[in-house]
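Appendix B. Chain record.
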Amino acid sequence: MAQRKNAKGSGNSSSSGSGSSSTSAGSSGGSSSPGARRETKHGGHKNGRKGGPSGTSFFTWFMVIALLGVWTSVAVVWFDLVDYEEVLAKAKDFRYNLSEVLQGKLGIYDADGDGDFDVDDAKVLLEGPSGVAKRKTKAKGLKERSTSEPAVPPEEAEPHAEPEEQAPVEAEPQNIEDEAKEQIQSLLHEMVHAEHVSQDYNQDMEEMMSEQENPDASEPVGEDERLHHDTDDVTYQVYEEQVVYEPPENERIEVTEVTVPPEDNPVEVTQVIVEEVSISPVEEQQEVPPGTNRTTEDPEQKAKVKKKKPKLLNKFDKTIKAELDAAEKLRKRGKIEEAVNAFKELVRKYPQSPRARYGKAQCEDDLAEKRRSNEVLRGAIETYQEVASLPDVPADLLKLSLKRRSDRQQFLGHMRGSLLTLQRLVQLFPNDTSLKNDLGVGYLLIGDNDNAKKVYEEVLSVTPNDGFAKVHYGFILKAQNKIAESIPYLKEGIESGDPGTDDGRFYFHLGDAMQRVGNKEAYKWYELGHKRGHFASVWQRSLYNVNGLKAQPWWTPKETGYTELVKSLERNWKLIRDEGLAVMDKAKGLFLPEDENLREKGDWSQFTLWQQGRRNENACKGAPKTCTLLEKFPETTGCRRGQIKYSIMHPGTHVWPHTGPTNCRLRMHLGLVIPKEGCKIRCANETKTWEEGKVLIFDDSFEHEVWQDASSFRLIFIVDVWHPELTPQQRRSLPAI
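Structure tokens predicted for this chain:
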């Protein structure tokens, strides 16, 4: 602006005072005095003319500016550029509510009806002529509302936004219009500055309020792997270590006792809950697959619900909002220790403040993640409970506190405590189907499929198009071996695109169910799962993977690098065979039936020596020489994602096409007793047969299928080994399967 004025000034002075300028040029051209030189250097141009304005030019510019001001004022009034009546009315309200203005409480200036003052409202106040009529209408509504009810400041809609600096209340501007303009511009500047904070906050709130949460999502496995939990496994992710108790294949039930801390032991328990785990909870909302059909009854209403800002402050907390914002500002900036101390002080000063205690819980939660400390996380879980026990807790804050408590309990493996928290949530908010969906997952986590089924039946009776409920209900039906019944629920649930449905497990089980009923669409769903990133390929559908490992169905001993192990197995195959046959002859029940629901028909049993890298001492008493032989090869005895076992299959057996759980292992089959005809194994699109004393090696994360149509039993020895491309560090740190 200043540069434009100077440019205009130079041009004006040249034209208005041309006579004096030329005279000056003539005299300065022939003069060599120091004064003349200084004038040329500092005040004139290189052609000798003076650049400074004269007295006449000052007066001329004064008149020009005055005329411009007059015409601008006329234009504003004539074209109705500003609604002065409304601005003055709002400025008057500003003046009468200055103390609230200084605390960021501008609810009475809510122009768009969302309950608070934000950027959109400010734009309404400052917009151009096209919005005058709209602005007047809103102003009328605002005036009517202000006369009929007290000014309602915005709720805790943006507790994470940075609080504006407070000015002394006594320093009240004298000019009301100037005050209004100054405050609005200040607020606009603050809102732009805090935009990234409010966006993060809104995203967090939307995830907590509107989406199905994945309790494990906040703690991905340190190794380069994706954790997709299977039907009946449990993942206990803790900060110090991550232990995964899960089956060798995708249908195994794993029963694990979990120690529940004192805070998870309820005073009143209506039923005894067995600590048996079926599945882990689903992931957070993922990107909805393009082309899927969303079967929502009212998409617009859904969008409105999702964008609804949670109300986290009660009446008392509104009075200390500035202090809460200051503490929250520290937390959002990553100054966790300072934020913890700030919220602790607020809790000390205001022990009945739910928002202060919730902030303390969030800080402890963040600190636990930062320090990788289970002890600190247990403290956060307890603090979330304290929030819920306070009086006058806003409903949204109560829901957030208990949901986060349940999530963190699941993270630590406290499934029973989490279930009780979810039960309380459903009691408090019986009309919230998303909470019932979470409760269903809670039942599945402890192996109570019957109660989970009842929950999802109830949800579907109220909201029959709930995709999350559908996929889980179909999942339960398939686990109950109701294969054909499960297919429409799994299919429609995935097609809904609802949060929590785009999960590899559901694609896996839908395709598997279709294969078992002879539906050729199975591979279309496997292909879709591959495109969505759930499967490495249509053939390789394992869910617990390390990226970048060489992938091929069949391997040679040389390719694995485990040639010494292969030679040892083939050299001692008769010893291994004889010990296996001796165990069979003892008929002491050491061979256990396959219990992973992988057989279409027939008889298939196994005798396990090593499981998850742990030696079974009792089993090794039945095959001591074999166990001694294997101790020399840590690539198999230390493979915590595999087993070493005998496998016997009787005539008339067919094993469904299936995949193993992980790409981190390879599987060796040593032929011990092999009928001449009728036994074969397919991996991907290649079929092979066993030979006595020879080793077959394949990657069981690829689809494989077995037929036993011989006239006598088939006995093989299964030896799992780490994938050769895994590093020593990965072999030590990967969770067991």
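Further analysis of this model is presented in Appendix C.
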